[in-house]
Amino acid sequence: MIERYSLSPIKDLWGLEEQYKRWLEIEIAVVEAFEEKNQAPQGTAEKIRSKAVINVEKILEIEKVVDHDVIAFIKGVTDEMGDEARYFHKGLTSSDVVDTAWALALKRAGEMILEELKKYYDELLQKAQKYRYLITVGRTHGIHAEPTSFGLKFLSFAAETRRNISRLEVSLERVSEAKLSGAVGNYANIDPEIEKSALLKLGLKPTDVATQVVPRDIHAEFLSVLALIGAGMERMATEIRHLQKTEVLEVQEPFRKGQRGSSAMPHKKNPILCERLTGMARMLRSYTVTGYENISLWHERDISHSSAERVILPDACMTAYYMLVKSQYLVRELVVFEERILKTFDTSFNLVYSQRVMLGLIEKGLSREDSYKTVQKCALDAWEKRTDFKNLLKEDEIIKSKINSEDFEELFSNDYYIRNIDEIYKRFGL
Amino acid sequence: MIERYSLSPIKDLWGLEEQYKRWLEIEIAVVEAFEEKNQAPQGTAEKIRSKAVINVEKILEIEKVVDHDVIAFIKGVTDEMGDEARYFHKGLTSSDVVDTAWALALKRAGEMILEELKKYYDELLQKAQKYRYLITVGRTHGIHAEPTSFGLKFLSFAAETRRNISRLEVSLERVSEAKLSGAVGNYANIDPEIEKSALLKLGLKPTDVATQVVPRDIHAEFLSVLALIGAGMERMATEIRHLQKTEVLEVQEPFRKGQRGSSAMPHKKNPILCERLTGMARMLRSYTVTGYENISLWHERDISHSSAERVILPDACMTAYYMLVKSQYLVRELVVFEERILKTFDTSFNLVYSQRVMLGLIEKGLSREDSYKTVQKCALDAWEKRTDFKNLLKEDEIIKSKINSEDFEELFSNDYYIRNIDEIYKRFGL
Amino acid sequence: MIERYSLSPIKDLWGLEEQYKRWLEIEIAVVEAFEEKNQAPQGTAEKIRSKAVINVEKILEIEKVVDHDVIAFIKGVTDEMGDEARYFHKGLTSSDVVDTAWALALKRAGEMILEELKKYYDELLQKAQKYRYLITVGRTHGIHAEPTSFGLKFLSFAAETRRNISRLEVSLERVSEAKLSGAVGNYANIDPEIEKSALLKLGLKPTDVATQVVPRDIHAEFLSVLALIGAGMERMATEIRHLQKTEVLEVQEPFRKGQRGSSAMPHKKNPILCERLTGMARMLRSYTVTGYENISLWHERDISHSSAERVILPDACMTAYYMLVKSQYLVRELVVFEERILKTFDTSFNLVYSQRVMLGLIEKGLSREDSYKTVQKCALDAWEKRTDFKNLLKEDEIIKSKINSEDFEELFSNDYYIRNIDEIYKRFGL
Amino acid sequence: MIERYSLSPIKDLWGLEEQYKRWLEIEIAVVEAFEEKNQAPQGTAEKIRSKAVINVEKILEIEKVVDHDVIAFIKGVTDEMGDEARYFHKGLTSSDVVDTAWALALKRAGEMILEELKKYYDELLQKAQKYRYLITVGRTHGIHAEPTSFGLKFLSFAAETRRNISRLEVSLERVSEAKLSGAVGNYANIDPEIEKSALLKLGLKPTDVATQVVPRDIHAEFLSVLALIGAGMERMATEIRHLQKTEVLEVQEPFRKGQRGSSAMPHKKNPILCERLTGMARMLRSYTVTGYENISLWHERDISHSSAERVILPDACMTAYYMLVKSQYLVRELVVFEERILKTFDTSFNLVYSQRVMLGLIEKGLSREDSYKTVQKCALDAWEKRTDFKNLLKEDEIIKSKINSEDFEELFSNDYYIRNIDEIYKRFGL
Q: How far is A207 from chain C (nearest CA, A)?
């Protein structure tokens, strides 16, 4: 991931030194487990901990010769260690360390993402509550449809986010599965009890059945959840981009003091953050394709997944994290022009009430088909002539004969459209 | 989906007539709910049911004029219905019907898929049990690694499948969410209680917060679970393809009497079913990309998801189903050449025991580094000269000085490698 | 592909009978080549042609036994053929027939697509010419930017389409490559001259170096070109969807007499065709992923590509074709509200001239930085207060001191913005 | 891209300082063009060049305030410039600079990639020539098929690579298209002649019709070509992985002195580079999905493509470059065990000659159907009993009655299978 989109603390997870630290953390946890089971002398882990040296440069130098990163790490760290080195990496295969380290890193990253996802959810809830009763034009196909609650937009994003929280929690459980079961996953040279105990120390748990590696459906699922999370933010950002269009301008992405929208056009305030989120959502879903392809490894494993994962697992985590932090800010600081939202109704000549008029006719005994035709005629007329729909209806003979003027007025009441909003919120738990 | 890969009963879900039947089923459920809440006269639903006519040709004719499939359906079905037609589709928008029908169809399809997934799981378990103690060469990077259990391969597929069962069950719950909340999802012209009651009759439940449509993250998740299921079978099929290679030939895909492998080469028995599954897994993952893109609809919905869904939702379901049915057969009828599996050890000169010899040296007090070097030297020698590794070791001075001959022989015992197999199976619940 | 989106003539390419006809066409071409090279008695091809029977049901029955579609075809077609059958499929392998048939079908499909692509291009050109001098607001980030030519939008789509025509032509050349070189592509049992001659008869040419199959990068490239074509129409459709939004309404997708926009809302005219195209573009790009994965076959071929290709190659062709036919109609019949286009300027308070004012100041000697600040202040002010930018500028001290009123007025001339339009069109060749 | 997979010189293209240098290069080229057309005083460009300061830290500081990278760049670079600054970025919009800089960077990157692609092609050709007459078993479906030339494998990769060279050359032409046509691409504030002249200086050319940006189909095509290039290397790497499997071991990826294959198993020599390439090919194709999605921007542009491009364009270039460099090494240093290749025939009992025997029978007048059955019976027998096919045939009554022993022996000659190899090479131009 490029520096531009890297945020702490999640970016600090991915440096080489951090990786080596995780590897060491794992190797020591195994030796501690050995001690517990009397497979190593008491104090060995402690000695290893104090003597182990992580020298990134040195390890990379060794790697140039051995062409294997874990072997270089072991050599580099244990070089001056003395006799305890015999217990270091004992009975393990490289993937035990690498995949358990992925579990550690992804669990930590996933928890950070989950935390930001929940904060994002809270921001959405707050906006949902704040604008619960603000009437706005609902739009389908980009066309004015019927009045609705402005807050409901945010509640819909919140509902999607709540599903994503649940998905991430499930996936996080699986991502916390690791393995210390040797070259082909059968504990040939390590005791299953050692695995269980060492992983427990690390906050992880054994995966059901490993090969040399943790099965990759787990990582693919994680990536697919991140893609869903990204698409959720994309949906929100797309809504804002639409509402910020010059002709609509019902909301505006926060525009900071001193900010400039365009090098050429001094008047521009562009929803650049929303657009950035949109592009990033594309990246997140592209990673899933690789994730799915990584599942079908040869036999007890091939290492084809590894090169891709070194790039996409950190990038996917950082992208999701960055998007969530920015989305919180975006939702929190969103400028909402309430007056404009109400004025929008003017631009569609009261046509948004057409269904209700049609249903009014049906209620008065007209057939569905005739009601539809009556209303559509006036509606298309109003639209074409850009004149008020309500006025046209008033002069329609069928309307006049079927609906008295009091009932008629009532058909254009906005309150009608949000009378069930509380029920929606209540069902959601608000 | 092409006829070639379409199997009953799942293929019968997708015809136009079936779709219209689902739509009618939904419309009637709503009228029944109306009756319960006294929003329609008692008996209305019954009358509608008896008078409704699904005439596919006629509906398609109407659609040519109105250019809207649900409107054509309503018109076609209610044309001769009489007064009850007033309650038909009352307060609903097309998407209420369409998305609830998707929920019905995907729930039914998903249940069929789940059933086959469980049967596939059972076949894997049976093979896992049958070959629990059959020793085979474990391979990493395509290279012989260490002895392991042949059954463990199947247990690993089973474990992945068990996760997929769990994923599908979760996704099925979500896919069973539908909506009957009108044009912008705010129950403007329909009572939330009607939705709840009608969906209950259909075996569905209301989604948390709908727009005009059921949110598409639900469908994207479903597609991503199907992709995971597909990738699981791809992994299994890839294993068989490898094991069936001429030089390996440890297993063979079932080859039916009368079958011909090649139009040119009469001797061929090819793993064509496994290859077919591999290609289909690619299709399944490609659908997810579209699924993710379908999430970010404009405002209260645009209909861009619809054209793609008409194609990919049935195709994805049918592909997954077809693959599962074929995979069961494949696993059940798989020909396993046990003798060949054992003979495979000969082709790598006892090198698969190299780690154990190294660990033996470490146990005798040699440093990890020196042990590795000692063993690697003999190992590379054996490989290069294509001669027995064990014999070379016997003549090595360091080995001779460190390990007595009894201990030495013990290092080449296969039983050692499967002594923890029972623990793995036990953890899995077997 | 579902019937709903299948159009003749392209859909007629894909039936089973059509496929068998292509296979027969190829088999006969080979025998004709044999005759030419005196490798078969004169008249053999003619006899085969007259005696060959394509009975779809029968072939499928045979396939149930032999589990191989080409073998079943050969058996079915030659069953009652007599001695000539000896020259039928002689020296060929199934893939010779299957891949050459793909070349035939894709070439024909590709030519149909190319023809529609060129017609689509013509429609775009016509609109580009028609609206060459119609002033419209250019929008970036969805925000009004600067005046531009409405026709230029179509010219930009046309330019992209012209690149796509060129790409498709290149790809069509490659897709027309086939092979008749036997089981592993080395002409073991067939003369290279036979291949050349038979393919020539079929309007094809030999691929450079085949394995058992035509290399799949060729098909992947074809799919990627279709995805580009789809994305081009998606861009056009997205533009229309934006311009048809209620608040903008500068254009409208054709709405046929009798058409209904919504089952609930009689007033709706929705850009459903544009949305349909958008969804289909997603499908087209999803196919590429499978196309790329199909390239890396094992050794001289595995058949994993085949199951996917049977579905996606026809579907991709038909989807592209359908989209092109519909896009032509869409562009041709597009309703353009010229008055509305001009009125749009009112909604942004003359802010679209801000860059020009800034450049005016720079020309008068003010620094870029100061000019930007001066103009941005008035611009943001105008936007916030929703008042005329030009009026605000008139009262600005710096403006007054730097620009006289005649020069000032000139800064707001629309003609200025399209004075280079002719040059753009000229460069394009118009 | 992570450091691990970044190679010079291509990685040096992507730093921030390099980007700013490209931007400056462009800004100056425009001023030079101004001078030529007398739109700026002579010497302005020279002065700008000498006074312009690229101070990365300072620019980033400014960006924090203005939240716009190009504006920050302009401000940072021109801060102390004096009067010439008035001509800096005059008439341009940010995208003029950014997209022209992409063209510069991608053209340079593309040329580097093309150079390596050609070198890779040369390595393939050399191996194709070297092993032109080395007989090997051709394999389809992973099963022995018929004898063929080992060099032909490389020629097939070379043919694909030659197509990729051609694709990249075409795409490079398009990627070299840039634009300097202002905020909405209509040259409102800049002369088309300035664009032409400035781009010429930069080695670029104007794109046909720009919006605010260069149309993104150009970049998507470039990414799809890189994906094809990647898939080509994946195919080659997959072949090697297969041929290096323990049971096959016909080739071996170079294994350097000191290298270690496994931290656990001292005997392992794994095709890790091939596997790495395989994983990277997955990454390359995932980028295309984003590339296709980036095409359909809103109106005269939105900036959603930008965040993704900042990551994937450099990453895609570097990944392709890295893969090509490594693939050259891989092919060049590949260890080929010629003896093993010949010995492989033993493992399939002469079955690879089955087609030829069948054709021999047909030539002797037996029907195709009967010939197939005769040969298949012996073939399946030989396979099942793992005994020599040729011996079984010798005892078959039909064979004996149809083919005399001299002709029979001839059917098992390997030379027969490569007698057309020279023709294939000749057609290819070798």
A: 29
